[in-house]
Structure formats: C-alpha cells, structure tokens
Amino acid sequence: MKNIIQHINKAFDHRVRLGIMSILMVNDFADFNMLKELLGATDGNIASHTKALEKEAYISIEKSFINRKPNTRYIATASGREAFTKHIEALEKLINNND
Amino acid sequence: MNTKNYLKDISDIKTMMSRSSRFMSLSGLSGVLAGVYALIGATIAYFQIKDFKFLIYNETDWISDNPYSSLFFNLVTIALIVLAAAIATGFFLTLRKAKKQNEKIWNPVSKRLLANFALPLVSGGLFCIVLIQYDIAGLVAPATLIFYGLSLVNASKFTIGDIKYLGIANIIIGLIATQFVGYGLYFWALGFGIFHIIYGTILYNKYDRPSQSEENIN
User: Fold this and answer.
1) pTM: predicted TM-score of the whole model, two decimal places
2) TM spans, by residue (chain B) (predicted)?
C-alpha cells in the first residue's frame, strides 16, 4: 500500500494542474485561452499552475506572436507524460484496492 | 484513504481528455433528418429519371432543346437542396446541443474536426467533377459514397467515435456500387438515407435521449 501512495504525485494534486496535464496528454499543444476555457479558471490561476508544472519540467512553454498578439503554447514533456501516466496508474490501483 | 476523491480525479481526467480533443455536441437527430431529406431527394430524383426515360422512349416533344442537360440540372439542384437542408439542420441542432452542454461551437476542437472532415470530402467533390468532365458520370455516386465514408472515418477521431462505423459502411457500399453502375441512386438512398437514419437513431439513443440527460427539455 505504501508503495502505491509514493506514486501519487503531489504535483498533480490539484484540480487545475490535473486538468492541464490531462489536456496536454491528448493534444500536441494547448494555448493559454484553450486551457482557461476548458478548465473554467482565472488567468492568474492558470498562470501559477502552469508555472508550477513547468518548474517540475513536466510541461514546456513556447512563446510566439500570432497576428502581433503574444501567444503562449504549452506542451507536455516526455518526463511529464511519464509522471502523469504513473500518477493515473497509482490512482487506479488505489481505487481497486479499496473496493 | 479517500477513495471518492481519487475516483473523482480519474473521472476529471477522462472528461478533460475527451472535452479537449473531441467535439461531443454533434446531434444524432440531425443525422436522422439528413437521412430523411436524402430519401425524399432520392425519390424525387427517381421520378425525374423515370419521366426522362419515358420522354426518350416515346420521342415526344422535348421540353427543352437539350433534355440531358435539363435532367442533369434538375438532379444537381435536388442534390444541392438536400445538402443545404442537411447542413442547415445539422448546424442548428448541433448549436442547440452545444449550448445545452456548455460547449462552444467554434473552438479549437471543432475547427480540427471540420478540417479533418473537409479534406477528403473536398478532394472527393473535385474528383467527381473530373469524372463528369470525362463523361464517367456512372462512377459519381460510388465516388461520393467512398469519399464521404473516408471523411467520416477521418473526422471520427475528433468527435463521437461511433461515426467511424457509418464511414466504413459507406466506403463498403461505395465500393460495391462501382460494380453496379446505373444503380447509383439506390446505393445513394441506402448510404445517405437509410444508413444515416439507422446511425442517427443509435447515436440519439446513446447520447441525446432526454431521459438520460440532466434536463428533461429536448
């Protein structure tokens, strides 16, 4: 049981961060507004949680300009994908064990 | 251990993955109606062709100096009206469903869906114009079915996955239809009419049934 809990990743232990990772797992990239709309969170909320995930090197950030407007793209890194997959597996095991 | 939270986490993950990559507001009912329009169109076309054959066999006075082009014009008009009605209904019902599900109709996912749907469809449309150009009109009906089927399969990754099977069914009867040139209208009625009605009904029962949604207005 302890082993399983070790795999529960604290970095994903928040609704918005969990949402950001889920979205980036199935999309090549997502921009700021897409994350905001899908998660129904505020600008500051998305900004701080993406920063936290970037700090763990789970996502990378690409800044560019589209029609002279700044555009930020978020991409899940290989280590981010691996960590998130492990997190999901740990969640599933926990649920199955408790049944 | 708080199992309930973990369960909720898993369901949140699933919802976000599907919401961010699939446009789920596609209306099943619009599929049924598109099928009905197609059958009505096919019936009218059938009688147009029958009248035309009657004219040819009886060598009565031509209604216009070129009966072929007049028939062709009528058939194209019927096809375009059916297409326009189906698209308008689909758009309206999808818009309504999107509003109900709190999904924006014009978002990155629906754009991707449309682009992936349009690519094989537009290629197919241009290819059919080429077929007519070379007087191989008999292959137009099979080609439309095949390309429409490919469009559905291509688009199925970005919406309700079930439309893949409608696509495969259309590709199969499109290929069969190539061996029965001259019966294109029947295959059309089957593919665009009956298949749409069957699949629309299945989708409607699976996703849209008012009893299964939270609100009971439909």
Assistant:
1) 0.79
2) 23-49, 69-93, 113-132, 138-156, 163-180
